[in-house]
Amino acid sequence: MSQTAKDRSFIAVIGDEDSVTGLLLAGVGHLTEDKRKNFLVVDNKSTVEDIENAFDEFTSARKDIAVLLINQHIAEKIRYKLDGYTNAFPAVLEIPSKDHPYDPEKDSVLRRVRRLFGE
After folding, report:
1. Is residue 103 within 8 Å of 75, Cβ to Cβ?
2. For residues 88 and 100, what is the distance between their CA atoms, to the nearest angstrom?
3. How far apart are CA 41 and CA 73, in angstroms?
4. What's 61's DSSP letter?
5. Where are the annotated coiled coils located (predicted)?
6. Which residues on adjacent β-strands are paired with residue 12?
């Protein structure tokens, strides 16, 4: 394992209030020394720019994030970023939310896998 991968020890979350709250209760919350959170609660006041900035921070700026979980209905708002993201770390996983079921047809990772296998 490379030094870069060893340093990645946190899960980041971009999601609705219920998803983020549940994951924080499970223990994924973290604040850095300079008070940067590893989560973003997206509500009706959140802009696409807010979501893009959080995605960029968790996937590029932060070198301590191993996995980024994002609600699929929120991922749809920045689909072009997810489709263009190819790095192994952090792994980006789309998850369902209470009000929005998971649709495998929309998942960037599963679409890439299908292309690899010629489906």
Report:
1. no
2. 27
3. 13
4. I
5. none
6. 68
CB 93 within 8 A of CB 70: yes
CATH architecture of 3-116: 3-Layer(aba) Sandwich (3.40)
Rounded-to-integer distance, Cα 112 and Cα 92, Å:
13
Is 98 in contact with 43 (CB distance < 8 Å)? no
What's the CA gap between 55 and 49, in Å, rounded? 10
Q: Locate 19 and state its tokens.
A: 């998803």
Q: With bands split at pLDDT 50, 70 and 90, how would you rate the model's confidence at 3?
A: very low
Q: What was the pLDDT predicted at 48? A: 96
Q: 4 pLDDT band (50/70/90 cuts)?
A: low
Residue predicted with more confidence, 116 or 73: 73
Give domain limits for the chain: 3-116
Measuring CA to CA, how many Å separate 107 from each of 21, 68, 71, 82?
23, 14, 11, 9
Q: Look up residue 96 and give its two tokens.
A: 């369902």
